[in-house]
Amino acid sequence: MKTVFAWHRPLMTVAALMVLSTVVCLIGLILDPRQVTGMDAWAKPLKFSLSILLYSVTWAWLIAHLPRWRRIAHAAGTVIAVALIVEQVLIVGAAAAGTTSHFNVSSPLASAIWGVMAVSITTLYVCTFLTTIAVFFLRLPTRSTTFAVRAGAIIALAGMGLAYLMTGPTASQLADFRGIAGAHTVGLADGGPGLPVLGWSTVGGDLRIPHFVGMHALQLLPLFAVLLGWLGRRWSLLADDRVRTRLVVVATVVYAATAALVTAQALAGQSIVRPDGPYLAAGWAIAVAGLVAAALVVAVRPRPRIHLTPA
């Protein structure tokens, strides 16, 4: 445990605090019946607790294994840790007060809180940009996992940037301003019917979806590469890391295309559970193309390497 905590003490401290925050939010969900924008008041800080936990542990591990830029990345990671704590404290505080944390400019205090959150989010993004550059100096035991981490970091950075699409006031807010400037939902006001737990709108576009999909590429793509490595020790078709690397490349293209698709779908005001027209066709095209490409990679394997020995 000491070794794990030593990856990056500030980020691992944040991870430990998020475990505690998760417990507090679960208790809040059980005991507090209040709702904010149609969801249980403690659902949002719970989701942020879990997301920040994953984010902190992932970057702590990556920074600890950097061969170069480690000092700069460590400093950036420390700033990230502070920004994450500020963000979560304000989100939990808003839940305790029974109000919304994001986009709230209904009073001078609310505006000041939202301003602090905006600064912390921007700081977080800039520092993540620096650590993402540093990741390109990282070399893991296999080429497939190295590629997965680098690709995942880039897509995650893009996914984080998509959050800025939510921060502008909508046309309806400008026409009838009520202290809220910004929204998750496109085409409708926040607070309508949503998916259980996640809260994503089932009747309109929701920009939280591409934000979520993009950000967690940093966990999902490396996990896919690790899974392929585990299968490669048991299945000869995946024993060659060149095959696994090509499959990771296919998965990366499919993942990036999916993130782009759900972004376009959200901006068009279309619900994630009711895709139609070009969005439905594009989804099927991405899925089929990904499966065909993966099948070809496995079927057309590279020739075995020939190791020459000196005479």
How would you characterize the overall build of this protein?
The chain is mainly α. The protein contains eleven helices and four strands. The chain has helices at residues 2-5, 9-31, 43-64, 70-97, 108-135, 143-161, 171-175, 208-215, 217-232, 241-267, 277-299; strands at 35-36, 39-40, 185-186, 205-206. A two-stranded antiparallel ribbon has the order 1-2. It has a two-stranded antiparallel ribbon with strand order 3-4. Helix 6 packs antiparallel against helix 8 (208-215). The chain is globular. The termini are far apart. 38% of the residues are buried.
**Molecular shape:** globular
N-to-C order of helices and strands: HHEEHHHHHEEHHHH
Helicity level, as a percent range?
55-70%
Mean pLDDT: 88
End-to-end gap: 50 Å
- Note poorly predicted spans: none
Task: Specify the biggest β-sheet.
Answer: 2 strands, antiparallel
Tally of helical runs:
11
Q: How much of the residues is beta strand, in percent? A: under 5%
- Major sheet: arrangement of strands: 1-2
Structural class: mainly alpha
Number of strand elements: 4
Radius of gyration from the CA trace?
22 Å
Write the topology of this structure.
Elements: H1 2-5, H2 9-31, E1 35-36, E2 39-40, H3 43-64, H4 70-97, H5 108-135, H6 143-161, H7 171-175, E3 185-186, E4 205-206, H8 208-215, H9 217-232, H10 241-267, H11 277-299
Antiparallel strand pairs: 1-2, 3-4
